[in-house]
């Protein structure tokens, strides 16, 4: 009972302190670096436990002091061995253990039951299956590859001065606090931080001479490195990170092909679907064989004797399910990431889309505060509409709108509308001498 209370308390703590409200990426990014990474680490733990924990506990089974410990025996039965071989009755227990250890280390080879065992050693060597020992390491490597773009993004996005961690904390406060004054202070802090970041980036000294003439050309090719002052550093960097996520998904397919030994020019999942559609039993295709053969030599004084034993790769039952699921999971992640990249490209590279986003939130903020200056439910006057376009394109610019979009996607429209209202009010004070029409747009 005490253990259950401690477990649920830990889970609640993890839920509260999770990074789900971190406003520096979207769901497709978290699907790559967070959910895919956790999934791969779980698979790594399962395979590692099957391979190494079961073998270690099997050794403990033969220790006299633990031979009567029912808990150890139960765990041994639960985990089992990754490989077990059928040996002749003349083998002793030590010989059987040696054969299984040797076959696990030196690989086995697959021959269908309806085919004869090859006599040539070279042909047996060509049929060898040598991936199962490396599965935990490959899965852990894949988890790291899914997380690398996120590391790169968080190493580079701070150069604009936008502190996404601080924005996450303030957004959480603004969402959870009921007092209007405390909530208003959190919103004001978020608006001030966004305003200071985009203002400082926009006030960098301009280059002169030949650098000023060369800069527009460099900006087109290396905009994510040289366009902080132009307000599009974050936007372009984020799109490049999206491309890295896509490149990682594509690389994962080739990694699985190379690791599993799929026929050249054919993806593992496509081969699987082809087998299923053609009516063949894909479980007996030889990709994850359950029953394999193993050769080992025993040195004697007179000569070396070769022994061939038949082994059961129990671990392949897990490997098969994991890699089949993983392949289709990568397809899903790649599809959602590609759609997200297209959506973000359209949002950030089209000026009209950026302006419409800002104007919509200004109207939302005006409507929630009881109307927009006599304009009937949050509408903008014509003069204000022109000023709003200037506010979006010249003041916020691409990076400011990008930060607000991420905030809306993670913290919600209410918090984002409050921040936009603060920024909009501060911007209008600088243009208080503008004359507005009475027309509503």
From TrEMBL:
Answer yes or no on keyword Transmembrane.
Answer: yes
Mark the transmembrane ranges. Answer: 34-53, 134-156, 236-260, 322-344
InterPro entries the UniProt entry points to: Innexin (IPR000990)
Q: Spell out the molecular function terms from Gene Ontology.
A: gap junction channel activity
At the top level, the lineage of the source is Eukaryota
Q: Which UniProt keywords apply?
A: Cell membrane, Ion channel, Ion transport, Membrane, Transmembrane, Transmembrane helix, Transport
Q: Its Gene Ontology biological processes?
A: monoatomic ion transmembrane transport
The membrane topology term of the UniProt record is: Multi-pass membrane protein
The compartments listed are: Cell membrane
Query: Which Gene Ontology cellular component annotation is one that this UniProt entry carries?
Result: plasma membrane
Q: What is its main location?
A: membrane
- Please state which protein family the record places this protein in: Belongs to the pannexin family.
Role summary: Structural component of the gap junctions.
The name this protein carries in UniProt is: Innexin
Q: Which organism is it from?
A: Macrostomum lignano
Could you read off the lineage of the organism from its UniProt record?
Eukaryota, Metazoa, Spiralia, Lophotrochozoa, Platyhelminthes
Annotated gene? inx
């Amino acid at each position: 009972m005490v253990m259950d209370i401690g477990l649920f308390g830990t889970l609640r703590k993890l839920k509260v302190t999770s990074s789900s409200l971190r406003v520096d990426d979207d769901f497709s990014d978290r699907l790559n670096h967070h959910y895919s990474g956790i999934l791969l680490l779980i698979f790594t733990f399962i395979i590692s436990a099957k391979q190494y924990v079961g073998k270690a506990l099997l050794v403990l089974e033969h220790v006299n002091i633990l031979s009567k410990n029912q808990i150890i025996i139960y765990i041994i039965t639960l985990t089992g061995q990754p490989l077990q071989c059928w040996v002749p009755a003349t083998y002793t227990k030590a010989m059987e253990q040696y054969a299984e250890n040797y076959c696990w280390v030196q690989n086995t080879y697959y021959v269908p039951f309806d085919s004869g065992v090859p006599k040539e050693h070279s042909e047996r060597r060509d049929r060898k299956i040598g991936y199962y020992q490396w599965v935990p390491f490959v899965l852990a490597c894949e988890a790291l590859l899914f997380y690398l773009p996120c590391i790169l993004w968080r190493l580079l996005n701070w150069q604009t001065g936008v502190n996404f961690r601080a924005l996450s904390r303030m957004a959480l406060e603004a969402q959870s606090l009921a007092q209007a004054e405390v909530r208003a202070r959190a919103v004001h802090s978020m608006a001030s931080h966004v305003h200071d970041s985009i203002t400082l980036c926009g006030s960098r000294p301009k280059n002169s001479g030949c650098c000023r003439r060369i800069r527009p050309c460099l900006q087109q090719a290396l905009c994510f490195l040289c366009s902080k002052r132009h307000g599009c550093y974050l936007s372009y960097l984020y799109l490049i990170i999206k491309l890295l996520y896509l490149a990682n998904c594509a690389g994962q397919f080739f990694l699985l092909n190379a690791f599993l030994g799929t026929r050249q020019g054919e993806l593992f999942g496509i081969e699987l679907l082809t087998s299923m559609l053609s009516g063949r039993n894909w479980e007996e295709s030889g990709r994850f064989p359950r029953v394999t053969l193993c050769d080992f030599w025993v040195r004697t004084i007179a000569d070396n004797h070769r022994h061939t034993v038949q082994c059961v790769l129990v671990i392949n039952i897990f490997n098969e399910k994991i890699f089949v699921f993983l392949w289709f999971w990568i397809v899903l992640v790649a599809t959602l990431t590609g759609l997200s990249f297209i959506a973000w490209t359209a949002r950030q590279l089209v000026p009209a889309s950026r302006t419409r986003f800002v104007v919509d939130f200004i109207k939302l903020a005006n409507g929630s505060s009881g109307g927009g200056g006599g304009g009937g439910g949050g509408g903008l006057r014509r003069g204000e509409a022109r000023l709003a376009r200037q506010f979006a394109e010249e003041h916020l610019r691409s990076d400011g709108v990008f930060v607000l979009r991420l905030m809306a996607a993670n913290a919600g429209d209410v918090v984002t509308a409050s921040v936009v209202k603060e920024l909009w009010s501060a911007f209008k004070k600088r243009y208080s001498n503008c004359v507005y029409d009475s027309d509503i747009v």
